[in-house]
Amino acid sequence: MSELQRQDEEQQHELQETKADTKKQNAQLRALLTESGDKLKDAVIEVLTEIWKLNAKDMDPTRKTKLKEDVLIQDKDQSILAEVKGTRNKNPTFAHVTQVLTHKFLSEHKNANAALILNHDLTTDPLNRTEAYTDPDEEQQLRRCVWGAVCGGRCVGGGVRLTIAG
């Protein structure tokens, strides 16, 4: 009986290690849906570089400029300056969109596309979140704000919305 107990304990230990390893490996993916601030920005950078194999870098690793939440994403002939935001608001303020464009013009990457990577309604389960900026008035404002040049928009798991503007 003791041999069976030892094997059972060994198997339980291996499963716990596997669970811990899996949790650690997927921490950045989970952070995309649950975090804000630097944790969210770091998770975005890691996912963009490790999973999507894009060149993404923190625009303010010292946290001393206005580009604290900005990420520069580069792929071949395209550059995107992305503002990464996490908020508890179910209906996030439109100021996030205008901040993206302000930062674009303040940066040395004025020819880059602008993007908002928004993780909103953080207190709601990601499966139950609604999309941001879907009200017809907001959609119209968004089109005006980016000169009618929204290149792409999509929902990425649980209401995280990525909007890229020219």
Write structural notes for this entry.
The chain is an alpha+beta fold and about 170 residues long. Helix content is about 40%, strand content about 25%. The chain has five helices and six strands. It has a six-stranded mixed beta sheet, sandwiched between helices. Helix 4 (about 95-105) links the parallel strand 3 (about 80-85) and strand 4 (about 115-120). It is elongated, with a radius of gyration of 20 Å. It starts with a helix and ends with a strand. Mean pLDDT is about 75; it is low at about 145-165.
Write the layout of secondary structure elements.
Blueprint lengths: L1 H24 L1 H8 L2 H15 L3 E4 L11 E6 L2 E9 L8 H12 L6 E7 L16 H10 L4 E7 L3 E6 L1
Helix pairs in contact: 2-3
Radius of gyration based on Cα positions: 20 Å
Q: What's the main sheet like? A: 6 strands, mixed
What is the number of helices?
A: 5
Shape from CA axes? elongated
